């Protein structure tokens, strides 16, 4: 509009100059002003109202990326997480930061903390001392003792001439023998034993050494009896090893042991615990962790170790190390992050953990599962079962070679139906 008005002004000035000359400039100016004032101007230009800015399409949620089997109604209240082990990328997430009852997948926390704190080669040593005419076994937490261990002790004690074999259980004196929520009936049911720091096959004895067979009500005394039988001593009981005075370390014995035997290494012990989901073994490992740190609260020590190694335990509550407690609450995110760290490329302190998981349709608590599913032989996982609680956490190798870690927790569900749904879901990862 300004350019058009300038052209009109120039035309008027030129015409006036040609007609009347310089002397009429003032009169022309008045006439030009009047003429220009009579021009009609369009309204001032205004920018048009912009169209609404396009909103970026919402990315699919991680829950949308989960296999359809993750939304099976048989799973009731269900939280889960799946991670691509090669990249560390979470590929499926269903409320993984919210805790649920984990049942025996709690043992993954115990096992991971033990590997990180103690190392895979850790062993427990049980010493025998001569105190007068007595032989006193100082129990140190080895609940995996078997006939071979007893034979080794007996060979070192041949001809001792002892009158009694006693056992000192003071190592766990500050910790309860039965945990809150445990029922003494479960001892005869084969699920637990009084927690004493020396046992034969987790309190089963020397005959039936695996499975849910009735456990002993006096597991430490059984160790003393089994050793006494081997060296021809008739009397057994509880006793103590006198501690040294002065500058010796607290609890240090006054003399050197006359016989010693070591437990299997930690990874071997963990494998027995994880594959068969043994509660006594899990609690024993938890107590070893606590004592190693100078503590008596084993669950608290376990979570502290994990937190110190960068795992988020903030939403997790554990009251035992085995998962038998119905008060435990664990997030799938924590379980999966431990497994993902174990399976990540490159060196990993937690790598030994993977070998302790039972193979689907092959061993332990998975031996009767996956017989007709694609996960058969490809899924390795820790199971978990309580009333209205089913859980599964482990690894699976897909058909295209990807390795996934996963943690599935189902609460409020019927056990057998949920178990089948979990197995189908893990098998679905096999085809991803």
TrEMBL record:
<dbReference type="InterPro" id="IPR012338">
    <property type="entry name" value="Beta-lactam/transpept-like"/>
</dbReference>
<dbReference type="GO" id="GO:0009002">
    <property type="term" value="F:serine-type D-Ala-D-Ala carboxypeptidase activity"/>
</dbReference>
<keyword id="KW-1133">Transmembrane helix</keyword>
<keyword id="KW-0812">Transmembrane</keyword>
<comment type="similarity">
    <text>Belongs to the peptidase S13 family.</text>
</comment>
<dbReference type="InterPro" id="IPR000667">
    <property type="entry name" value="Peptidase_S13"/>
</dbReference>
<keyword id="KW-0121">Carboxypeptidase</keyword>
<keyword id="KW-0472">Membrane</keyword>
<keyword id="KW-0645">Protease</keyword>
<dbReference type="Pfam" id="PF02113">
    <property type="entry name" value="Peptidase_S13"/>
</dbReference>
<feature type="transmembrane region" description="Helical">
    <location>
        <begin position="12"/>
        <end position="32"/>
    </location>
</feature>
<protein>
    <submittedName>
        <fullName>D-alanyl-D-alanine carboxypeptidase/D-alanyl-D-alanine-endopeptidase</fullName>
        <ecNumber>3.4.16.4</ecNumber>
    </submittedName>
</protein>
<keyword id="KW-0378">Hydrolase</keyword>
